[in-house]
Amino acid sequence: MPPPADIVKVAIEWPGAFPKLMEIDQKKPLSAIIKEVCEGWSLGNHENFALQIADATNFYITEKNRNDIKNGSILRLTTSPYQTAVQLHERIQSSSMDAKLEALKDLANASRDITFAQEFINLDGISLLTQMVESGTERYQKLQKIMKPCFGDLLSFTLTAFVELMDHGIVSWDTFSVAFIKKIASYVNKSAMDTAVLQRSLAILESMVLNSQDLYHKVAQEITIGQLIPHLQGTDQDIQTYTIAVINALFLKAPEEKRQVSLQRAHTEMAHILAQKQLRSIILSNVIRSPTAINDEMAHQLYVLQVLTFNLLEDRMMTKMDPQDQAQRDIIFELRRIAFDVECEPNSSGSIEKRKSMYTRDYKKLGFINHVNPAVDFTQIPPGMLALDNMLYFARHHQDAYIRIVLENSSREDKHECPFGRSSIELTKMLCEILKVGELPSENCHDFHPMFFTHDRSFEEFFCICIQLLNKTWKEMRATSEDFNKVMQVVREQIMRALTLKPNSLDQFKSRLQNLSYTEILKIRQSERMNQEDFQSRPILELREKIQPEIMELIKQQRLNRLCEGTCFRKISSRRRQDKFWYCRLSPNHKVLHYGDLEESPQGEVPHDSLQDKLPVADIKAVITGKDCPHMKEKGALKQNKEVLELAFSVLYESDEYLNFIAPDKHEYCVWTDGLNALLGKEMTSDYTKSDMDTLLSMEMKLRLLDLENIQIPEAPPPIPKEPSNYDFVYDCN
């Protein structure tokens, strides 16, 4: 007979004694259980003791997390969080360097537990640590020459404890003094600093900037992007990652007027050290082209930097041209001058009407929609003035290509000319959509493009390559003005396919586009889709309807098989770099969900035996997704994170309890929500199911119709012939 569900069998350790095997009744108060354990070892004052998980985490058992105790767990009897906090509070103030160092090391480890952190913070522990950073460490400055490793460890453990305590979100970041900020910034600004101290200091600066606008101003006064650049020139990828994270934070929180000049500041303030090298080129050579493979966190930070850099274009993208502004109109005159090698005629030469006629003719050749006043073309936002900026850059920096495109099209018949002005405006708008200019970076995306770090004017160069592609595709399609939108669709597909290959340079991007001609795009389209005309007849549609239930059953079985294999889920916290994991899988008979915590991400399937918690499928009432999930309603950063919201789902079971999930990606989200809905007998409605249905149905239809190739399938069934005049041909077999 299995033991009651509320009884958990565990082993409990106590230093200097043999471990005890106990059965813990989860219905009993935790204090009563601790009292019982203490009495077994003849220990008094049971209120001064607590239970911990005896693993690397050493987390305290509380009434909130006691249900996480599994059969076979090893617990440890230890001093209560309050007693431990009091002891460490006293120990870190010891006059002995060795005792202080050991106490700070213990504090750094203990601070990961929120129960201990709350008690230590209640003792004003955060203030004590900040005072030690501000002034206490100065007492040991003289000892650095003879005890440098010890001093580095002392400071490292102090900052580690501080970071761990702040990550629980109990204390506001707005409470810190300028002296503390100056001290942290000084560790970052020093040329030679202990790696651990530097890493913690960078993490603290990033959190300060992201969590408080007031602290942003204080941090910005102490440290500049130029002062951070030397840390990018090392070989430690963790330091480089934290450095770029701080740079991103400074960009993200900078006031709009300052954000536009941040890059220039980074390029000039450290010029004497960097020999005029720029932030972009340093990241390119020391990070992107480093022999060390780029990890996910670094890829995310590079993606964020890429997005924030392109967002500098948003102001121009959303600025309309003022048709009455002479300076802006002069840019259009410059485009005309470069294209046709003419100078602006003085007012006295020729009649006004004649000059207007010349301008109108030239503006028509340049491909503007409004030939009389082309400034009106740039009043549409987006792309606003950004389109005109791109055109001028192309005309000045790729003059031969610009003149060739304009003259080539002005000499064609009207119906076949590719309008340069209109094309440039629509292309700029398209590129802004592709690169998501103006949107905030995604929390989970790692999609950075190395080629955008190879040039200081990467967006403009990107435009120059694409406008030449557009002109080439226009010719290949033999397009007319009526085909403009079709050409833009093809160009968009060419660009997106080339970007998918992640070219390392703009030249490589250009060569990839050369291989994606219009003819090649047609071939790719042909291979990727069925011929819709052949699959719209009534017999084919009836066959599709007949096959669909079989395909849906196949998809359902695949989803359930994936649930049986299981998935490793992350427990998302405020800190991205220290994830905790748990695993969930469906039993082979599809009757029970097995789940449990893991210390690290597994390399394969986790056996059912090691997953002690169970949830019978029969107890599941519903599957909830998105913002309706209980863990998405809690206070914190997750509530504001759109990406996490899209990956969140919960299982509601008896007694109104929930099992909360955050899928690692969209694919796993669809697999699990589909599989759980299938277990409940509900419809599978995910995008992944629709995609699988289309793919499998297409393949099955092609296989079944293989023998009918080149045979015309009639729209209607053949008519039933008339009855014969007699049935003499029927023979009685009897």
Secondary-structure topology with pairs:
Elements: E1 7-13, E2 20-25, H1 30-40, E3 49-53, E4 74-79, H2 81-91, H3 97-110, H4 114-122, H5 125-134, H6 144-166, H7 178-189, H8 195-211, H9 213-222, H10 225-228, H11 237-253, H12 256-259, H13 262-268, H14 271-274, H15 279-288, H16 296-310, H17 314-317, H18 326-340, H19 352-365, H20 385-397, H21 399-410, H22 420-434, H23 458-477, H24 484-500, H25 506-514, H26 518-528, H27 538-565, E5 567-571, E6 580-586, E7 592-598, E8 613-616, E9 620-625, H28 630-633, H29 642-647, E10 648-653, E11 657-662, H30 666-679, H31 687-704
Parallel strand pairs: 1-4
Antiparallel strand pairs: 1-2, 3-4, 5-6, 6-7, 7-8, 9-10, 10-11
Keywords: Apoptosis, Cytoplasm, Membrane, Phagocytosis, Phosphoprotein, SH3-binding
GO cellular component, one term: plasma membrane
Subcellular location: Cytoplasm; Membrane
Verbal overview:
A four-stranded mixed beta sheet has the order 2-1-4-3. It has a four-stranded antiparallel beta sheet with strand order 5-6-7-8. Strands 9-10-11 form a three-stranded antiparallel beta sheet. It is flat. The chain is an alpha+beta fold and 734 residues long. Helix 3 runs parallel beside helix 6 and helix 8 (195-211) crosses helix 9 (213-222). The chain is built from 31 helices and eleven strands. Residues 327-499 form the ELMO domain. Pfam families: ELMO_ARM, ELMO_CED12, PH_12. This is Engulfment and cell motility 1 (ced-12 homolog, C. elegans).
